[in-house]
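Work Package 3 (structural annotation) set out to generate three-dimensional models for the target panel prioritized at the project kickoff. During this period the team completed the workflow that converts sequence records into discrete structure tokens, so that structures can be stored uniformly alongside our sequence database. As a representative example, we reproduce one entry of 196 residues exactly as it appears in the project archive.
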Amino acid sequence: SVVQIETASGLGSGIVFDGKGDIVTNAHVVGTDRSFKVTLSNGKIYSGTLVGTFPANDLAVVKISANGLRPATFAKSSGLEVGDIVLAVGNPLGFRSSVTQGIVSALGRTVSEGNGATLPNTIQTSAAINPGNSGGALVDCEGKLVGVPTAGATVPSPPGESGGGSIGLGFAIPVDLAKSIADEIIATGRVTHAFF
């Protein structure tokens, strides 16, 4: 249910939301692009188009035309507790279908992203979230979606070395919130009010 999304400027992840080809991802993954290359976990590649985006909560929906899609199974993020084991599934640094494990470290965190968005009520996790994980899946031990990874804290690289990596401090948008926003984008192409 986790896909790779390629834009004009980089790679990210997405989640198959339904059987009609709707893919949920982060708004910062799609950026200002309106068309994308979407690669399923089986390696099949499809053209994707933007349905809508809501930068205030860093979510977007992309549509592909494909048969036999396997939508994610949703849990209730409201049932999460600190200490729960979670897995982050995505395409970090372009390594397709990678999985990292961690715990729910905290709930209800407010996180400021580099693009100016401030996200309320995020899930903090120790599962490694690296560039490319954004828009992917944070799942529980049953493989049910509990959140959408959106940001990972990094430390600067030492002089002469390239890019800082994950330090086990990542954040995800709770699935209850992500689902509400995605439903509205799919229904109307836009979001008419902010979610918290």
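The first helix runs from residue 27 to 30.
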